[in-house]
Amino acid sequence: MAPRFVRSTLLAAALVALTPACGEKEVRPGLILLSASCAGTQPLAGVTHLRFRVTGPGLDTPRERVSTVNWTWAKDVPTVPPGADRVLEVRAYVGAPDQGGQLVSLGRSSPFPVWAGEDEPNPQVRVLLRRLGEFVPVNLASDPETCSTPTEARAAHTATTLPDGRVLFTGGYRPQGDGSRPVSATTEVFDPREGTFIPGPDVGARAFHTASLLPDGRVFLAGGAESFAPVTLQPTSRLLDPETGARSDLTPKVARYQHAAAVDAAGHVLLVGGRAADGSGVFTAEAFDSASGRFVDVAGEVRRVDTTLTVRDDGKTFLIAGGADTTGPAPEVLAVGFNGTDLERLLNVPPRLRVPRVGAAVALLGRPEETPRPLLMGGFDGVDPSQGAQAVGASEVLEDVMTVSDGPALMPRSNPCAVTLPDGRVVVLGGRGTAIGSTYAVPWVELITPHAGSQPTVLGLPLMPQPRVWHTCSALPDGSVLVVGGVDDSTGEPRANTEALVVMPPPRD
Length: 509
Fold this sequence. Notes:
single chain, mainly beta, Immunoglobulin-like, six-stranded antiparallel β-sheet, four-stranded antiparallel β-sheet, globular, disordered N terminus
């Protein structure tokens, strides 16, 4: 019978092995395998076999070994040649994998280096097994049978993945049973290695704001609603250093919320669209130059509300797609970029969406070597669902500044959360569906995989335990997705989603 919890901590002194083929010293990393969950199906339930797999730069093929569930370090963990960004992956099967066994659980280490020097320490890695496709609460690494929860319930907040893999959550509102929405000024940081949520500094009350990771690791917070009864807007932007907690306040030209933001490789943050306190559209575009610490005037207007904004893989071209002007959904996809300190439109005749939409999501589809392209997903085909606007199921690929092509068909919803995985696939979760004249939160989850020269494919994943809208989704270093916060109004009464959930998609290969 497979054990529920396997934990092996191995000393580094005897971890060195020699490779006869090339004489290059290799090491067998010490492995801590965490295979318990605080809820749901245990990762080793029914498992009979494990596959240990090492990948990384310079390894043309993975180093693999297969064992029974009763593995031993010296026999079953592969040796690893020197190099950077090695990853040790453990796959768990019901049945032998070379005889049609079913892959049911998966875990990956954080990237680790293997040094070539005689006196260099040998790596010790930790792998947390997760059941494939199952949404479960986050668990503590120090006590995997204990669930870990955020410090407070949030909706319309931001989640920013930091360079070290931690996730910074800021602001949002706390959904109340009576429909009130008190706005939060707090932050917290999730550490995926430990499974912990640690409170951070206050950043001023703000919800429906944006948070942009700058090239130097700081986070630029812009706009947001300061309260909802009545609606007042946060008048400041803030630079936050997650490492030191240092903060500095800035004053933008225009206060806004429900806007879009993106940052290019040079550290320019572009802000477009959004709403004023009275609900009218904000069409003044504005930019922040992180190098000088100043706001940059942007000539002309971007007449969009509920639009998307992304940066192409060239690191310098902004694409504005979807959203509505004063007359309805806008079909044009605008391409703009910075020429020095000025923003300029790149095409006089922009391409047009096949399905103009409001409240869509956008994410890059493809690995860096696959020329990733922005994929536009969901939205409403009109401005107001109470006036007949319907959720959109069609997706569209923003091929370049001149071309838009059809993407795969998805479940129809607006305001979903979409995130790009480290392997280039996209996961889209939750959002708002439409009924007759009304909307409701949905639990749908889809995994989109790109293919060279052909249409991306879509795999439906298990539903989230609760429908969610105004939540966040973040790709963690091990390839899983963290889902935090949001609102469930599918039964007519808004309820806060208080659990932080994590799901491991099936591997791409």
